[in-house]
Design goal:
Length: 337
């Protein structure tokens, strides 16, 4: 990191976008004593936000398989911030499994990632009794966790208000119409300022069954993409994994069949589960799929979190705070005009 000039440390801050990125920025800045106003164009339910459709995976070591090292670095830092600010979050680790026919892909995943320990069939059963006899090997990442986005965002918003920040729902604010320091966390809506952004569709299905109980996210290695099954409590599970270069918000028949079929492979009881919801969110991504914090005088844009929103948002907010407080620049992520 290096240091540069910055806006005055006591100036009010306006943040646009109350999704996971904007919420973490508002929280850390409000807790640091800044006067913060957070604008969100949708209502408090946040159903128009990409965060509404997210998986909430906090898995920096698993992401090593396909992501750049900066994602793991920032993700590991984010875990500490999640634990600090939301100690009730589930940090039960994550489990990666595969069937024998996909053993080569399983071994590749193991080589490309760290922070895991290998399990035999008994080890898998000990972690997840529901999977007894289903898999002969697994990889356990004990430090990873997950959050339920639709429960976490309201908690973050409440924490912002408790710290003295103001949240204005139903406020379609424009950065150019606001005075003072503005932090733009609008995701794809920020393409008026970031034209290189694109939307990457992530599809999800929520199912419900009383026949399966999982204590942590389970990833199934798949020839094309890994399925993850995330426990949501009350017998509900989110199925996800798709990253499709498309900007519609529907779930395709092919994706639905593959997600549901893969879930059935994880446990046959999922075949009798009730489908609760289909949905898709558009993740904002730059061409290199890496996040960026762009600084232009009193305008800061934080965007391009791709499929790592919940994993990266706390650490990116901390970097923005470090810049505003001390002028520090993380040159892997931040760009100054």
């Amino acid at each position: 990191m290096y240091q540069t000039s910055r806006p005055r440390g006591d100036s009010p801050v306006t943040i646009i976008g109350a999704g996971i990125t904007g919420a973490w920025h508002a929280l850390l800045l409000a807790e640091a004593g800044r006067a913060v106003t957070l604008h969100e164009r949708s209502d408090a339910a946040m159903t128009e936000s990409t965060s509404h459709w997210a998986g909430g995976m906090l898995a920096p070591w698993c992401e090593e398989e396909a992501a750049e090292p900066v994602i793991t670095r920032l993700g590991i830092r984010s875990l500490a911030l999640w634990r600090q600010h939301l100690p009730e979050a589930a940090f039960n680790g994550s489990l990666v499994v595969a069937h024998p026919r996909d053993r080569a892909d399983f071994e590749r995943f193991a080589r490309l990632t760290s922070g895991h320990r290998r399990l035999d069939a008994e080890g898998v059963r000990a972690l997840e009794p529901a999977l007894e006899g289903r898999f002969g090997a697994g990889l356990f990442y004990p430090e990873e966790g997950h959050v339920e986005p639709r429960r976490v965002l309201p908690r973050l918003h409440a924490a912002i208000a408790k710290a003295g920040g103001a949240i204005k729902f139903g406020s379609d604010a424009e950065a150019d119409d606001l005075d003072g320091l503005v932090i733009d966390c609008r995701g794809l809506a920020a393409r008026d300022r970031e034209p290189s952004l694109r939307g990457v569709k992530g599809e999800m299905i929520v199912i419900e069954t009383a026949e399966v109980e999982l204590l942590r996210p389970v990833r199934l290695i798949h020839p094309r993409w890994p399925l993850y099954v995330i426990p949501r409590g009350d017998g509900r599970f989110m199925l996800g994994a798709t990253s499709i270069e498309a900007e519609d918000n529907g779930v395709s028949v092919r994706s639905a069949l593959e997600l549901l079929g893969a879930a059935y492979v994880v446990h046959p009881a999922f075949g009798e589960a009730r489908i609760v919801e289909f949905g898709a969110g558009l993740r904002p991504a730059f061409p290199d799929n890496l996040p960026k914090i762009r600084i232009e005088q009193e305008r800061i844009t934080v965007n391009g979190l791709y499929r790592h929103g919940f994993l990266l948002a706390p650490a990116l907010a901390e970097l923005t705070l470090a810049y505003l407080a001390r002028g520090e620049i993380d040159n892997e992520v931040m760009q100054c005009a």
